[in-house]
Amino acid sequence: MTATLDRPHVWLPGASDTPEAPLLLLHGTGGDEHDLLPLRDHLAPTAPVLSVRGSVLENGMPRFFRRLREGVFDEEDLRTRVDELTEFLTAAEQEYDVEPGTWRAVGFSNGANIASATLLRRPAALAGAVLLAAMVPFRTPPRADLSGKRVAVVNGQADPMATPEHTATLTEQLRAAGATVSVHTHQGGHTIDPQVLPAVAEFLHGANHV
Q1: Please, which pLDDT band fits residue 210 given cuts at 50, 70 and 90?
Q2: For the chain, which residues make up each domain, given as ranges?
Q3: Which tens digits make up the pLDDT trace of 107-130?
Q4: Which residues form the Phospholipase/carboxylesterase/thioesterase domain (predicted)?
Q5: Catalytic residue list contains 186
């Protein structure tokens, strides 16, 4: 199957005088490809950005994969959607002249979950990830070699969905696969706390490469 740019997305070129690895922005449930664009100014203002809309609808709200109920993921659908997203990234690499596998995913909630699932299922697709309000995508994760991948898990200590237990389990799974994982917590709930963004920007600066 030939990969095509067949889903809604936004592409923002980076600064040509300061080459930087691209960001892949992945929104939460009910969001779209415009939701996380303001993060670029806080995290990596000169980086190219690809922001993608989820291809699944839940009661009219875009998501990246189906769930059986809140907190219970349809893992068969998740695997399919990871493969679809990876094919889309291949098309984007060709269209926008991006070196394959250099994407640094920045995902919130459902977007964070598709990002971590992509790392575990299709590790060559991403260089690393920032996982904001992230849960655990797979009950039993695929065998993956994440050596050289850098991941930040950024969760709220009062988050009723992405709980401290999720944070610990996801961190353990990623580290067991060889990833270097940095954990950043805040006092809030299921949200992006502006106070942690400087630390995330520093993390991305350390992960920047092309």
Answers
A1: very low
A2: 9-207
A3: 999 999 999 999 999 999 999 999
A4: 23-205
A5: no
